[in-house]
Amino acid sequence: MIKVSLFAAGLCSVLASTVSAGMVAQWDFQTTTNGGTAIAAAPATPKVFVANFGTGSLYLDGTNGSSNFFEPVTGSTNTEINAFTGTALNATGGMSIVTTSPAALAIVGGLASGTPPTYAANGKAMVFAFSMSGLSNLTVSYAVQRTATGFTTQQWDYSTDGTNWFNAATVGGLAASFTVTNFTLASGLNNAASAYMRVTFTGATAASGNNRMDNFQFNADAIPAPGAAALIGLAGLVARRRR
Predict the structure, then answer these.
(1) Strand 118-119 to 53-54 pairing
(2) How far apart are CA 182 and CA 208, in angstroms?
(3) Domain spans, the chain
(4) Which fold has domain 21-223?
(5) Prior bond to 117 cis, omega within 30?
(6) Do 216 and 37 form a contact (C-beta atoms < 8 A)?
(7) Which residues touch 243 (CB under 8 Å, ≥6 apart)?
(8) Most buried of 23, 103, 183, 232 (most Cβ within 10 A)?
(9) CA-CA distance, 19 to 108, in Å (whole number)?
(10) What is the model's pLDDT at position 225?
């Protein structure tokens, strides 16, 4: 009986290691070793960021369901994207812990219009595109801070086609200094060859009001192959027979 129990425990341990959480894509906005995009301050802030680790891209250029964020040709007046100092929070593995500007992506209120004024970037969205093939249980984490007049809410939605969107999480209560926020999407993108996460910003009350974000991590669990799933069943059967 002891040998059987050890076999079942060992088998479960091996299988657990094959389905553990793994990195899908990460953006620290600095590391270019693997071909990732480095951030720059306006008017040179990129509108497409290739993941600094893993595989994926972040869009702010009007493609893949994103909005086209305004950036002036010169200077930074009324810009809707910019770069400021960052944080080492949520930077793990080989991610950069350099915080000196430019190090973090900032979404900025933008041009004021009307009375009372509204700000152009309210309601605009950026989109992450990546793959969840063979993966499940997407976990998103990142460091974020808000200025006093910056966006109060970040609405996260998911899609498998970049057109039809579904609620994933609402992030509010943003602090004045960097803190880490995270959430898990237990279904919806599982095993999706094309996966999209959209972030819509609302609540800015000044042209310079902003949310600053750094060290995005997208992690997920590997889906067991059919043979592994059968072995999981076998391990369970062995354990039940022992009892």
Answers:
(1) unpaired
(2) 26
(3) 1-19+224-243, 21-223
(4) Jelly Rolls (2.60.120)
(5) no
(6) no
(7) none
(8) 103
(9) 39
(10) 79
